[in-house]
Write a structure and sequence with these properties.
alpha/beta; Dihydrodipicolinate Reductase, domain 2; 6-stranded parallel sheet; Alpha-Beta Plaits
Length: 440
């Protein structure tokens, strides 16, 4: 059978990895797919560099639309990234009857509803395993492997840059700004790391997982997003003393009131496997009613790990290329007419427990005032840790840190209590609040 022909838009880190892995493992991939898969055309603005990667047998052009217009191309891989030209090219490829493989989580998290609808109307597939957690096959696990389950919650370390930074902060006792510079020097963080450190990248990914897990539309605009820029080495140290690690988690949960969709730094018990995921590695926990809690771990980025996911999508499409469109796995796991309008909760409605750090004047009665305000708000306390004043480096013995762990309460209730505590004259700095998840 004639090999299926693939056009590649963008041959950077992931694109070159995809080309090399596909070429290196060609025989094995063909044995699994049932026919050959060949990248026969590449579009890249740097034609000379791209040609040096793919060799003389592959046609290289500087116009992505020339790839889409080629009637020989069956599948288009979009690896350009971003929301702009990538969206136009994906929709044009779909309109031309091409299947699409993409690693573009930002595009799908924001415009996925429109893109998936266009693909369904045209009878083509949009595959995006590489968009979430790099080489970890989490999309396939959620969409197919756990299909018997009513999924209850997902929690994931899905951004390697922030996990590397938090690991370094914990290991070396350094503050965020210092570790970020080191991460940039080592290539773990971009020159402009905003999407990573502010939690946006993780929010794109958890938005996609939430849609697949709960059968809702992709709704990135409803996600609560908080990054790691305000975390201090002190918080990581205190968390450790209390038996926790701090991780930036993407969390989505099914509740009676609706779906939680949030990204923020989170205290996780140190005994949980996910709390021990270090460096730039990724991990995702998913809890289903039948299977219980499952864990998926691996490299969340990089040339060949991400290429592994891109090629898995190519093989899936090749296997199903001639199948009736109605018999294919739906883009978001649920059939289009089964997608629900279950609301995504505002963060103020989310119920969780909290870590609070207050820098206070070392005076009699301060702790009683703080705990009294929590009690008045109906927030119960799980644990309190008070540092001796002389333990706080560089401070006169007039200030101390009070650390409080609370039981579950609604975010709105905690916000009101924090405003009252912050107004106390004996609370000397902005209060640090980090949410806590047991992930049991």
């Amino acid at each position: 059978m004639k090999p299926i022909q693939v056009g590649l838009l963008g041959i950077g880190t992931v694109g070159s990895g995809t080309f090399n892995v596909l070429k290196r493992n060609q025989q094995e991939i063909q044995g699994r797919a049932g026919r050959g898969i060949e990248i026969t055309m590449v579009a890249d603005l740097d034609v000379a560099r791209a040609q040096s990667v793919v060799g003389p047998d592959v046609k290289v052009v500087n116009d992505a639309r020339a790839v889409i217009a080629n009637p020989e191309i069956d599948i288009v891989i979009e690896l350009i990234g971003g929301y702009g030209i990538a969206k136009a090219l994906v929709l044009e490829a779909i309109a031309a009857g091409k299947h699409v493989v993409t690693a573009n989580k930002a595009l799908l998290a924001v415009h996925g509803t429109e893109i998936f609808a266009a693909a369904s109307a045209k009878g083509v597939m949009v595959a995006f395993e590489a968009a979430v957690a790099g080489g970890i096959p989490i999309i396939k696990a959620l969409r197919e492997g756990l299909t018997a389950n009513r999924i209850q919650w997902i929690a994931g370390i899905i951004n390697g840059t922030t996990n590397f930074i938090l690991s370094e902060m914990r290991d070396k006792g350094l503050d965020f700004d210092v570790v970020l510079k080191e991460a940039q020097r080592l290539g773990y963080a971009e020159a402009d790391p905003t999407f990573d450190i502010e939690g946006v990248d993780a929010a794109h990914k958890v938005t996609l997982m939430s849609a697949i897990a709960f059968g809702i539309p992709v709704q990135f605009d409803k996600a609560y997003v908080e990054g790691i820029t305000k975390l201090g080495a002190a918080d990581i140290k205190y968390a450790e003393q209390l038996g926790y690690r701090i991780k930036l988690l993407g969390i989505t949960k099914r509740t009676a009131a609706g779906i939680e969709l949030r990204v923020h730094p989170t205290l996780v018990p140190a005994k949980r496997l996910i709390a021990n995921v270090e460096g730039a590695m990724n991990a995702v926990m998913a809890h289903g009613d039948a299977v219980g809690t499952t864990l998926y771990y691996g490299k969340g980025a990089g040339s060949e790990p991400t290429a592994s996911a891109v090629i898995a999508d190519l093989v899936d499409i090749t296997r199903l290329h001639t199948a009736d469109a109605a018999q294919r796995v739906p883009h978001l796991a649920f059939q289009p007419d089964a997608i629900s309008n279950t609301p995504v909760l505002a963060m103020s409605e989310v119920v969780t427990s909290y870590y609070l750090r207050l820098r206070v004047a070392d005076e009699a009665g301060v702790l009683a005032k703080v705990t009294g305000l929590l009690a008045e708000a109906g927030i119960s306390i799980d644990a309190v840790l008070q540092r001796e004043a002389d333990e706080i480096s560089g401070e006169a013995a007039t200030q101390t840190d009070v650390i409080i762990l609370t039981h579950d309460c609604a975010e709105a209730k905690m916000n009101a209590a924090l405003a009252q505590m912050q107004a106390l004259p004996t609370v000397l700095q902005p209060i640090t609040r980090i949410r806590k998840e047991e992930l049991a």
